[in-house]
Amino acid sequence: MKLVMTLLVRDEEDILREHLEYHLNAGVDLVVVTDHRSTDGTAEILRSYAADGVVVTVREESEFAQQAAWQTRMARLAASEHGADWVISSDADEFWWPRGTSLKEVLSSVSRRFGVVYGLMQNFVPHRADSGGFIERMTVRLATPAPINDPATPFRPVVKVAHRGDPRVVVEKGGGHQVHGVEGESLRSWYPLEVLHFPFRSQDQTDRKYRKTWTGWERNPRGDLARARQASDQGRAGAMWDRIALDDAEVRRGLEAGSLVTDVRLRDALPRTHEVGNAGESSIERENLGDAFGAAVFSEAEVVRLQRWLDEVHRRVALVEGRP
Q1: What is the third-level CATH fold of 1-202+246-324?
Q2: Which residues share a beta bridge with 127?
Q3: C-alpha of 305 from chain center
Q4: Which of 63, 160, 196, 246 is the least crowded, having the fewest Cβ atoms under 10 Å away?
Q5: What are 48-94's pLDDT values in tens digits?
Q6: Which secondary-structure segment (H or E) carries 32?
Q7: What is this structure's pTM?
Q8: Where are the domains of the chain?
Q9: Which residues contact 25 (CB under 8 A, 6 or more apart)?
């Protein structure tokens, strides 16, 4: 079995090496990367791995990101030129954790009836003391059943997709959450993967992340992006960091209330990445209950998102018809 990961990056030098090391030691054979106008050390890191034959990079210099088109291109290349049996569509701040001994072992166990599986997103929260490596600092994440009521939260309950290699695949816009054109059904009753997500790692990185997103994307309606841009226009560049970063007292209260949970899997796996399979195997039983909660929370979030979309449709129809 050949496992290929696709990756869309822009200025990810603070996390890219850890991302590549983890996944290459967790069973990924090749990483197909689209580098969109990186100006930091990202390109140099990619070249060093390309020299070892484990990374293939395409450079894009267009002003605006074309996320769905580029991810579709990479997924098709993975199948047609690199013989991928399975393809994982990832971002640099996502670490795919197997519910088994390795990514390959878990995906190999999926029945041929299914062509698409999903990984539940687990969002890690940043600490206000943002010096040092993020892996050592960020060991607390949102508990799976924690309520997410803010429509503009950056910690939305979502899933990410892995699919069988297929040169006809189409990746939807939005960051690899859904694909079409793959032979086989989508597996919804079991989530064989988790996605350990570290989107905000320091105040400087958070500010840069939001700025490069609203300047690098021609259109993105996400509420947290609108909130971040408004704060920046008002001269409050650190407002989003202040909103999401926690101090020690806030972490303790969250752990006591059950809205936060300690999760050191990535911290413990990275220093000894050749043993990541054993770490994944030991976590299966412990995470089964969390998996059930996660599936329920994601399903409920999908219903909420659908209702908001319907409300917007009704509002637009009323405007067209001249109704209040």
Answers
A1: Spore Coat Polysaccharide Biosynthesis Protein SpsA; Chain A (3.90.550)
A2: 246
A3: 19
A4: 63
A5: 999 999 999 999 999 888 999 999 999 999 999 999 999 999 999 99
A6: strand 30-36
A7: 0.81
A8: 1-202+246-324
A9: 273, 274, 276
